[in-house]
Amino acid sequence: MKKEIILTGERPTGSLHIGHYAGALQNRIAMQNSNRFETFVIIADAQALTDNAENPDKVRENVLQVTLDNLAVGIDPEKSTIFIQSAVPELTELAFYYQNLVTVARLQRNPTVKSEIAQKERFRGGTPVGFFTYPISQAADITAFDAGIVPVGEDQMPMIEQTQEIVQKFNSLYGKTLVMPKGVIPENTAARRLPGIDGNAKMGKSLNNTINLGDSADIIAAKIKTMYTDPLHLCIEDPGHTENNPVFQYLMAFATPEHFTAFLPEYKDYAELAAHYERGGLGDVKVKKFLNEVIQEILCPIRKRREQLERDPNAIMEILHKGTIKARERAAVTVARVKKAMKLEYFV
Ligand code: TRP
Question: Which helix (H) or strand (E) holds 84?
Fold first, then answer.
């Protein structure tokens, strides 16, 4: 039986961090390793330029960094196809046709695009058309590979919804041509949206509040030490709040019963630890020490693999090159089908 297809990926604008790991990468690796799917990972450099037009060097550099991050967490080029978006021009071609199927008003309602535009200083003088329409380009990325499953962070769900509407509209106008995709977000609700280490609801490189996959053990320990917790929990005896407390949100996302057995056996699991903190009598230093052990255990093997891979950038480029050739072949098949459906097939 033909395997169901997964398409997922990131914009290469900075190294990936534990927010990406919890929200998307962990799922991605588990799905790859289940061998039930065929996985494509897009390094969305063209999309990265939609809000970094004046920073081509940054995007270029991060193509390698984001690829390293993906390989370090466990993307296996033998099992998955990892490729560069701009080197698959078929994606641009599809996006051009899909633009006819989306209204300006619909794009204006996309909540992720809306909040990104509001946040960006550099868009004060006006939003670039390319940025405004990137959900359409993302629909091209997804449909070009006939992807039925798109494992992403929660913030990307509006893109999947727009893609579904484009697929629906395309298929109803031109006949059943495109595969209807479905977004998949983590089951663990804490993992869907990790706050920054400073307590900011959003974790981001530009906010300087991330723990990166490539961070050294010392940097991770230092970051966790300074992490924001409950500001009302001044003495150990005081009752603490676990809600909106990043230390507890991270533990909820990452700490398994095995971590408790190994590092904090007085507690069976997250629920017991959280209950003690809320009752009072449990200090932040002890909880942070545990969080540090958990994060170090997760990130240590990733960092080691990353350091290993980093030594041979040519090998990484070779993986991308091979992946891109394969991705291009597949996208070309879809473009041919799309053009035929749209009566744009001429010289056969
Ligand atoms: N928008 C995604 C991000 O910001 C990157 C991306 C581009 C993507 N095309 C995609 C994600 C297709 C999933 C599917 O990281």
Answer: strand 80-84
Q: Is residue 162 in contact with ligand 1, taking CB distance under 6 Å? A: no
Single-letter amino acid code for the residue at 194: L
Contacts of 8 (CB under 8 A, 6+ apart): 24, 28, 39, 40, 41, 42, 150, 151, 152
Q: What is the 3-state secondary structure (H, E, C) of 30-80?
A: HHHHCCCEEEEEEECHHHHHCCCCCCHHHHHHHHHHHHHHHHHHCCCCCCE
Among 185, 179, 165, 158, smallest CA distance to 31 is for 185
Q: Is 7 in the pocket of ligand 1 (CB under 6 A)?
A: yes
Is the CB of 74 inside a 6 Å radius of any atom of ligand 1?
no
Q: How many angstroms separate the CA atoms of 324 and 318, rounded?
A: 10
Q: Whose CA is nearest to atom 5 of ligand 1?
A: 10
Q: Indicate which residue's Cα is closest to atom 9 of ligand 1.
A: 138
Between the CA of 4 and the centroid of ligand 1 the distance, in Å, is 19
**pLDDT (tens digit per residue) in 163-179:** 999 999 999 999 999 99
pTM confidence score: 0.95
Distance CA 255, CA 214 (A): 20
Q: Is 9 in the pocket of ligand 1 (CB under 6 A)?
A: yes
d(CA 73, CA 195): 21
Distance CA 148, CA 169 (A): 17
Establish whether residue 138 lines the binding site of ligand 1, counting it when its CB lies within 6 angstroms of any ligand atom: yes
pLDDT, tens digit, 9 for 90 and up, residues 88-102: 999 999 999 999 999
